Amino acid sequence: MHKRWIIKMVACGIICLFVGSSVVLGRSENGNDLDSQAIIGKNNIEQGTSFTIIALPDTQNYASTYPDIFTNQTQWIVENKEALNIVYVGHEGDITNNARSFAQWHRASTSMRYLEDPVSTGLPDGIPYSVIRGNHNIGMLFDLYFGVARFKGRSYYGGHYSYTNQNNYVLFDVGEFHYISISLDYNPDTNELNWAESILQTHSDRQAIIISHSILDNPTGDWTTSGLHIYNAVKDYPNVFLMLCGHNHYEARRTDTYNGTTIHTVLADYQDYPHGGNGWLRIMEIYPATNEINVKTYSPYLNQYQTDADSEFTLTYD
Fold first, then answer.
1. pTM score of the predicted model
2. Backbone dihedral region of 247: left (phi > 0), alpha (psi from -120 to 50 degrees) or beta?
3. Cβ-contact 258, 247 below 8 angstroms
4. Higher-confidence residue: 242 or 28?
5. What is the mean pLDDT of the segment spanning 95-109?
6. What residues form DSSP beta bridges with 240?
7. Helix segments in 165-308, DSSP class H
8. From the CB of residue 191, how many other CB atoms can be counted at a distance below 10 Å?
């Protein structure tokens, strides 16, 4: 599967519009066939093992107060790319705490840039990753620091809705298995959800992940208002198997089946922990041969796992 992202750029108060984000099946946005950069972990999958995606929950307090912890997370991802077969990193929103703080956006950009380094990652375009806005990121600076220009031309970049990166998607292949991850803005409107549906239709051959900042409440696992709208928009698509979110503190999950299609939705947000979250992130090991996702909660900062039932569990998907 191939991934496509969506992004806009706003520089010094000037909005730079990038047109032409139409979907081209099997190609990167620059029109080239997806190359080996987007095909990751093939040997491991052929041996019947797993690959890993990393979910980065709300990093807002790291960007405001504990930038070293943010950088520790992304450096750890790069250092463990081979050992864990990490193929994709999805940020769950609230990148910064103050949407107007250039300093916070600069710190977040610096931390995320470790994922882009072709030398340390061994990949020309770095480790595929996506970012979305949370409620703390509404404003122009998101697109200044994580706009179209940052991702355009990367082989995993898919495209974007309208002229911004507020809704985006990426494509990646792991051996014979094909995936798409669609990141939706905080509280997406009808047009944005219609766009997401069109992407799912175009890439119906790819197993799909949906990420948006607010989908579940905690601790009940009930839908937020926007989460219910997102679920109702994507539940008809049998390729959707996983949705990820942050926003509401701590952990929750739910499993829903509609017309035979099962979607797991997983919430993680540790911002109320000491040091702005203590560096906790989600390691999601996917085993295609058995259709299982082993979820672990780990902190590179503490070098510790959380092993309670809400933090370490296995999901089965179709």
1. 0.87
2. left
3. no
4. 242
5. 98
6. 208
7. 190-202, 225-234
8. 11
SS3 242: strand
Do 44 and 86 touch, CB atoms closer than 8 A?
Answer: no
Here the tokens at position 80 are: 């463990």
Residue 316 pLDDT > 90, yes or no? yes
225-234 helix and 190-202 helix, angle to the nearest 10 degrees? 30
Helices (H), 65-189: 67-79, 81-84, 102-113, 118-121, 141-145, 148-151
Strands (E), the chain: 9-11, 14-16, 51-56, 86-91, 129-130, 157-160, 168-174, 177-184, 207-212, 240-245, 250-258, 261-269, 281-287, 292-299, 304-306, 313-316
Mean pLDDT of the chain: 88
Q: How far is CA 117 from CA 4, 81, 144, 151, in A?
A: 19, 12, 20, 13
pLDDT in tens, 15-38: 333 323 322 223 333 333 344 444
CA 58 to chain CA centroid, Å, is 12
Measured CA to CA, the distance from residue 150 to residue 131 in angstroms comes to 11
Of 161, 211, 190, 154, which Cα lies nearest the Cα of 17?
A: 161
Residue 26 carries which side chain, given as an amino acid letter?
G
DSSP state of 189: -
Q: Is the dihedral of CA 128, 265, 231, 276 positive or negative?
A: negative
Asked if 182 contacts 172 with a C-beta cutoff of 8 angstroms, the reply is no
- What is the fold of 9-316? Purple Acid Phosphatase; chain A, domain 2 (3.60.21)
How far apart CA 36 and CA 94 sit, in angstroms, is 32
Token code pair at residue 160: 């974007």
